[in-house]
Amino acid sequence: MSSFSNMSAEEISSLLDEHGIKHGPVVDSTRNLYEKKLKEAMAKRKQAKPSPDKTFYREEEEEVTYVYRTPTKSENFMESRPYMRSKPEWTAEELEHSASYSGYSRSSEYRGRDYDELSHKMPVGAKTAPIRSGQDAPKAPKSPRLIPLWVQFLCFLAVAVFLYFVFSSMESSEPLKVIE
Amino acid sequence: MSSTSQKHKDFVAEPMGEKPVMALAGIGEVLGKRLEEKGFDKAYVVLGQFLVLKKDEELFRDWLKDTCGANAKQQGDCYGCLKEWVHGFMS
């Protein structure tokens, strides 16, 4: 990045015109503002360049779903961990009233997302496994998975099924009984 | 159209003369102090900056945000105040 402080007012003015930034005279009080605007404009131009890489991914469908799934997948996995911790809480305290209700609202949201994720993942899951070996060669910078995808998938399912069972069992009993 | 504050009405009603920068709508004590520290101690100095920025809203708002950390509402109030004053006394 070129240092703007060495440039003359005219140079800054012409740079602003190049970037299509509307401006007034470049004087002492306005210089900082215009330098900042130029930095932002240049940063935007640099950001615009990597987009062709993304279009490359778009051409190959399987890769796109694989790439886009990773952030959500790790996100879901992060969420599943607090649930796993709360499981012993429930069994130990025999379904405390407030905890159970808060757990349900979370688990119902979680389930909603769960099923969306599952419906998306089912067709993709089969494809990503054979493709991954092919992907390793061209895409070196991809971070390696510590836990294989299918293990994560299984844990995910197990937690979901468990929560569903707990939820369904709770619905049968009345709230008052639980307090007692 | 949003209604203007009493401060705005007071400012645009008469020539600004030597009014302090805190007389501007949107500029309270905190922002006023910050502007004073940067040398903008009178309303007319901010007016000068407003004019040098060619009375452009976006430029003026950006400048105000960078100089004293004004939020969107404060920026808008100050800009509107100066714009109306200029319209009344300089056109």
TrEMBL record, chain A:
The chain crosses the membrane at residues 149-167. Keywords: Membrane, Transmembrane, Transmembrane helix. InterPro entries: LEM/LEM-like_dom_sf (IPR011015), LEM_dom (IPR003887), LEM_domain (IPR051656). SUPFAM superfamilies: LEM domain (SSF63451). The keyword Transcription regulation does not apply. It holds the Pfam family LEM. The keyword Membrane applies. Residues 1-45 form the LEM domain. This is LEM domain-containing protein.
From TrEMBL, chain B:
Keywords: Chromosome, Cytoplasm, DNA-binding, Nucleus. It holds the Pfam family SAM_BAF. GO terms for biological process: chromosome organization. GO terms for molecular function: DNA binding. InterPro entries: BAF, BAF_prot, BAF_sf. One of its GO terms (cellular component) is nuclear envelope. It is found in: Chromosome; Cytoplasm; Nucleus envelope. It comes from the Eukaryota. Belongs to the BAF family. This is Barrier to autointegration nuclear assembly factor 1. It comes from Oryzias sinensis (Chinese medaka).
